[in-house]
Recover the amino acids of this structure.
């Protein structure tokens, strides 16, 4: 007996053949792309391609680990590329003042402000529509970075140039490749790394001195 076309039947409806399933898959893909284009791309259009970072929300343990490495530290706390605002809201909840998020995407900014309002922190935390590459970070003492590996080298140069010696940078998901962390917490995707700028600068100066001709 010959095998007929594979079908998938939903309860109470006519069965779908292979062609219909393919069309459904294509339609789903188009819908997903349209959602991305409408909601997540607007903030990227003004940023060079190599510096663009796709939105990927941080998990609860990632947030907890990042803030644990900043616990007890005073000063302005910022999240570079703050996404839906969950990390900034949690930072404020744990006593970090002020807590600020920088994000270009207007839809994510709306979601961030809604999250702050829902938590009772509306007007207490700040979400600013600013390009993190153009923000002056000289008054920031706690910097949180959940960004892609390709962004870390140029960002390292910016942080070295602008942050005060007393600042601490916490990186999630991926470490800074040329920096030695002061401490780390977690494993796998939940691992975070802390860098004290005074130590980072000292190491950079030592490396430069060793490489200089006598």
């Amino acid at each position: 007996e010959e095998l007929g076309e594979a079908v998938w039947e939903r309860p109470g409806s006519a069965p779908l053949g292979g062609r219909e399933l393919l069309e459904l898959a294509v339609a789903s893909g188009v819908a997903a792309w349209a959602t991305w284009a409408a909601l997540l791309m607007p903030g990227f259009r003004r940023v060079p391609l190599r510096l663009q970072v796709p939105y990927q929300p941080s998990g609860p343990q990632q947030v907890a680990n990042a803030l644990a490495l900043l616990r007890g530290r005073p000063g302005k706390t910022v999240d570079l590329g703050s996404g839906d605002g969950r990390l900034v809201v949690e930072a404020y909840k744990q006593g970090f003042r002020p807590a600020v998020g920088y994000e270009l995407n207007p839809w994510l900014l709306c979601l961030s402000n809604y999250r702050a309002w829902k938590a009772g922190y509306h007007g207490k935390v700040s979400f600013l529509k600013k390009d993190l590459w153009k923000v002056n970070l000289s008054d920031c003492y706690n910097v949180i970075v959940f960004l892609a590996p390709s962004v870390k080298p140029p960002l390292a140069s910016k942080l070295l140039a602008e942050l005060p010696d007393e600042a601490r940078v916490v990186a999630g998901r991926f470490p800074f490749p040329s920096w030695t962390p002061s401490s780390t917490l977690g494993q796998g995707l939940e691992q975070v790394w802390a860098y004290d700028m005074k130590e980072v600068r000292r190491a950079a100066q030592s490396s430069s001195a060793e490489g200089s001709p006598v």
